[in-house]
Structures are given as C-alpha cells and as structure tokens.
C-alpha cells in the first residue's frame, strides 16, 4: 500500500496511510519518513536494508543527489532490490512538501504532491522508462496545478519499435488516466528532446500541463502535449485532468499497445 502525506502550510506532516508494498518484479517499496539512516543502512517504516555503491539517491525531480542530503524525518520512497537498497527518492524538499491523497482542483491550504515511476505491465519487456509527477500548490486565493508525464525510449528499441533515433522521436505515445478501472482522460505525449537511458541514446516524450488561477481567471498552459478530459464526447476536449491519489496511468504506443504503467 502506498503512503500519502499532506503537507500543511505550517510545515507539519500527517501520515494518511502506511506500509510497504511489493512491486511485480519482487522489489520491496516503502513510502514514509526516514527513521534511521547511516553510511550503510536506511530504514523507512518497517522496511530496512543496507546501502552500497550502487544505491541511487534522487531529489524530487529525479536528479542524482548525495546521500548526505537525506536526514531522519525526510519523506522518501525506498526501493530495496535483492539484498540492498536500489534507490532512495526524496518525496519532500527536506520538510518543504510531501505526497498527499488530494487530487486535482484542490484550492485549499495544502500542498499536494503525487508521483510514481512507471514499470512494464505483466508480460511486457521494454527498455523504455518513465515517471509521472503531479503538484497542486496553494497560490493565495488561486491555485497552481502542474502535471508532467515523461517517457524515455532508448535506441534501438524493440518495444516500442524504433530502430533509429528518428523512429524513436516519431513514436505516437499516449497516457490513459483511469479511476476505479474507468478511463477519464487520454493525453498525447509530444517529443521533447534527445536524452539517454543507462548511457544509451534515447528520445524523451513528455506531457507538461499547468493550470493556474489568477485574478479569478483559470488559465491552462501546455508547454508539451495535451489531454482530452472528456472521453464521452467526439474530438479532443482539451483540459487539465482532475487527478486523484490512486489513479492509474497506462502509457500506450499506437502500434505496440500498453508499454508502461503506474499508480499515483
């Protein structure tokens, strides 16, 4: 079970759910506060495992950071693989935020953050990787929502099929957001830039939407991709998905079908 948190404006953090979850590939995952961390071991909730030179440490944006940035009390995601810690990911900014069970449209006094790293569905083998990040920040009397979905496809790739960088760049990728098994939004990813996956050249596709309320006016800004938020109507009804904790996201390739999935 995932752990979600609400970061109040006062900076207090309240745990809403607790417990470690197990990924399909056997990884042990725990979201919560660090209760103990040393040079060779980290403990989050009931999960404790040793660290080593291969352990990855990441900030909120997934960028590498030194282990020294992590402290007891930080809200993190710990992934233990085999007999050691595979990764430790910051889920608050050293006290400045956390995950929450809130959703899109939250205009209250809480700072909502939901994120996940995608994994292949059962029976699918792919070198593609990706993640989703949703934020809702109070903005005075308004709101400031942001949704980013990123997928990186290395070259060459069998699933989805891309023998060259040009083919990887031209892939038709979509993200389907569902709640309780019912799709409620379909987002088209746009090619963003050339990058790398495990030192292999890759094409990055992305959705980057922002929904702001200023001076009593709502504004939807799309720097990459777009989302159809009313699947019952013909055509594309562009908007900002009403995201909630527990929603599932499936990344589809127009030819290969489902290639990645995740849960907020």
Q: How many alpha or pi helices? A: 1
Class by helix and strand content? mainly beta
β-sheet strand percentage: over 45%
Number of strands: 20
Segments where pLDDT lies below 50 for 5+ residues?
A: 1-24, 95-109
The dominant shape is globular
Helix content: under 10%
Radius of gyration: 19 Å
Task: State the order of secondary-structure elements, H for helix, E for strand.
Answer: EEEEEEEEEEEEHEEEEEEEE
Termini separation (Å)? 11 Å
| Average pLDDT | 79
Largest sheet entry? 8 strands, antiparallel
Domains, number: 2
Structural overview:
By secondary structure, the chain is mostly beta strands. It has one helix spanning 165-169, and strands at residues 5-8, 13-15, 20-22, 28-37, 41-44, 47-50, 56-58, 75-81, 84-90, 110-117, 129-139, 142-154, 173-179, 182-188, 190-197, 200-214, 217-224, 226-228, 248-253, 257-263. The chain folds into 2 domains: 1-99, no CATH class; 106-264, no CATH class. The strands form 3 sheets. Strands 1, 2, 10, 11, 12, 15, 16 and 17 form an 8-stranded antiparallel β-sheet that branches. The radius of gyration is 19 Å and the shape is globular. The chain starts with a strand and ends with a strand.
């Amino acid at each position: 079970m995932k752990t979600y948190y609400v970061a109040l404006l006062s900076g207090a953090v309240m745990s809403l759910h607790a417990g470690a979850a197990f990924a399909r590939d056997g990884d042990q995952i725990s979201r919560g506060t660090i209760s103990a961390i040393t040079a060779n071991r980290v403990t989050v909730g009931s999960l404790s495992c040793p660290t080593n030179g291969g352990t990855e440490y990441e900030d909120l944006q997934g960028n590498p950071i030194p282990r020294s940035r992590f402290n007891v009390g930080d809200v993190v995601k710990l992934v233990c693989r085999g007999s050691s810690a595979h990764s430790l990911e910051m889920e608050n900014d050293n006290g400045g935020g956390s995950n929450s069970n809130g959703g899109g449209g939250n205009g209250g006094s809480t700072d909502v953050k939901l994120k996940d790293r995608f994994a292949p569905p059962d029976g699918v083998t792919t070198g593609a990787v990706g993640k989703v990040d949703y934020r809702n920040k109070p903005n005075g009397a308004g709101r400031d929502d942001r949704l980013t979905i990123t997928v990186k496809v290395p070259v060459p790739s069998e699933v989805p099929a891309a023998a060259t960088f040009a083919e990887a760049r031209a892939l038709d990728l979509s993200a389907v957001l569902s709640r309780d098994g019912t799709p409620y939004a379909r987002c088209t990813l746009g090619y963003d830039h050339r990058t790398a996956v495990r030192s292999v050249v890759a094409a990055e596709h992305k959705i980057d939407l922002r929904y702001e309320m200023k001076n009593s006016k709502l504004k939807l800004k799309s720097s990459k991709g777009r989302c159809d938020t009313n699947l019952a109507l013909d055509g594309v009804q562009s908007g900002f998905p009403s995201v909630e904790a527990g929603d599932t996201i499936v990344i589809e390739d127009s030819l290969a079908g489902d290639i990645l999935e995740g849960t907020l």
